[in-house]
Design goal:
Mean pLDDT: 91
Shape: globular
CATH superfamily of the largest domain: P-loop containing nucleotide triphosphate hydrolases
Distance between the termini: 35 Å
Number of strands: 10
Strand content: 25-35%
Strand order of the largest sheet: 6-7-8-3-9-10
CATH architecture of the largest domain: 3-Layer(aba) Sandwich
Length: 235
């Protein structure tokens, strides 16, 4: 469904992605693991059109999208819930959700609003509250819900557990699984490798702009390098 082919990305003279290739199949949850600075966020920004690769292609359903502006990539079915949530802080919860649907002209927006309120009942309780006054957990729920309002085929999540209490992390990941079961393909960037691999089908490990490992979630969980570097266990 989504394929990144030998992509190289630079920030000025800094070589951030050094020819990475990965695939995300329809209906999968694919985890992208790595330490800070490995290139995970850069990968998502490249797929969503916020960065342009100097070399390589990004294919959606076999068609190249790397030259498209971000709003056209959203219109083709790729939504991005970025690291740091990036709320419209002065708008209400409902207004933020409406912004997520800004490209849509169909009549199903109220139905999808109810869907995200079912996924995140707390947001329904806070629907008229200004987003900047929400808790960190509530803002993360809103970031995911706003991306879902675009009715994406692929949802990219960048560090959804960052800064959250453990009980909220569990809730967020249970919801991500539920979204996937409803038919949305997910590419997940996450520092909490154990949690990410517990819900993913497959995964890739990035180090300094290179993919150094890939495999099923079970294979990566048992790999000694992953256990040592990301799961806090000995080899």
């Amino acid at each position: 469904m989504l394929e990144v082919q030998a992509v190289q990305v630079y920030y000025g003279e800094i070589h951030a992605l050094k020819g990475i290739s990965l695939q995300v199949g329809r209906g999968e949850i694919v985890a992208l693991l790595g330490n800070n600075g490995a290139g995970k966020t850069t990968t998502l920004k490249t797929i969503s059109g916020l960065l342009r690769p100097r070399v390589g292609q990004v294919l959606l359903e076999g068609l190249p999208i790397q030259e498209l502006p971000p709003h056209e990539i959203v219109a083709r079915g790729v939504a991005h819930a970025p690291e740091g949530r990036r709320m419209f802080n002065q708008l209400t919860v409902t207004e933020n959700l409406e912004m997520g649907a800004y490209l849509r002209s169909d009549g199903n927006i109220p139905e999808d609003m109810e869907r995200v309120f079912t996924l995140f009942p707390r947001l329904k309780e806070r629907s008229t509250q200004v987003a900047g006054t929400l808790s960190g957990g509530e803002q993360q729920m809103l970031a995911i819900a706003r991306a879902l309002m675009a009715r994406p085929r692929i949802l990219m999540l960048d560090e959804p557990s960052m800064g959250l209490a453990p009980i909220l992390v569990e809730q967020i990941f249970e919801t991500v699984e539920g979204i996937n079961r409803q038919g949305t393909t997910i590419l997940l960037v996450e520092q909490n490798a154990a949690m990410a691999l517990s819900i993913a089908h497959r995964g890739y490990v990035l180090e300094t702009g290179n993919i150094v490992l890939s495999g099923s979630a079970a294979e990566l969980t048992e790999h000694p390098d992953v256990r040592r570097a990301y799961l806090g266990e000995g080899a």
